[in-house]
Design brief:
seven-stranded mixed beta sheet, alpha/beta
């Protein structure tokens, strides 16, 4: 989870990746890496809620010609992200400190990456966000999502409850429970292409394509 409120994750930014690894091992990273090859070589990529930016380095190594817009509300996360790519070319990375509301209106993207981002929003807030994402993806473009999936297993529900208490208290995120982001994506005319489960299917890595015009 990254914060939907400005600066919400500043307090835990230095320890965020370690906390995630302590609970989920490599599952969170593996989920985010699994479908990177689906992004067109040399394409324009929008990353929403970029976090510590470790994925930037992986994306630049696998797709060195791509141009990246990295959106993150936490200034400390952005600082860490910049340090994580110290030895890589940065000219094609555009850091945006803020929310998706600050995106340039004239740019369309070959791919949008939203990793552990949709879980921050309530359903009423998430639906218009998904419509905005739909509007900035080029025809034949991709939406790559990694996020939690509640399969109504007791341990998943319990872990989600603990996480939401923690992140609402420390980072002031909006959501109090996991939205049904998969259903909302279908409602917003995204077409499911690929999906892969991790950590007992509690984490889903999913690729969507643009469907009908909204």
């Amino acid at each position: 989870m990254n914060s939907s409120k400005a600066g919400g994750f500043d307090a835990i930014a230095p320890m965020y990746d370690a906390l995630a690894a302590m609970v989920f091992g490599r599952s969170i990273r593996n989920a985010q890496l699994f479908y990177l090859s689906e992004i067109r070589k040399g394409g324009r990529v929008l990353i929403l809620g970029g976090g510590t930016g470790w994925l930037l380095a992986e994306l630049l190594r696998s797709n060195p010609g791509c141009e990246i817009w990295y959106v993150e509300t936490s200034a400390r996360m952005i600082d860490i992200a910049r340090s994580n790519i110290d030895n890589l070319p940065k000219a094609r990375i555009h850091f945006i400190h803020g929310t998706q509301a600050l995106l340039p209106l004239h740019i369309m993207y070959d791919a949008v990456i939203a990793n552990f981002y949709f879980d921050l929003f309530s359903t009423p807030s998430l639906e218009p966000l998904l419509k905005k994402i739909h509007s900035v993806i080029l025809p034949n473009g991709k939406l790559l999502v990694s996020d939690f999936v509640n399969n109504n297993l007791w341990w998943q529900s319990a872990l989600l409850s603990v996480m939401y208490v923690f992140f609402r208290g420390i980072c002031k995120i909006e959501a109090a429970k996991l939205p049904d982001w998969q259903r909302l994506l279908i409602n917003c005319k995204f077409k499911l292409k690929f999906s892969k489960g991790f950590y007992g299917n509690f984490i889903g890595s999913v690729v969507y394509e643009i469907g009908d015009v909204l």
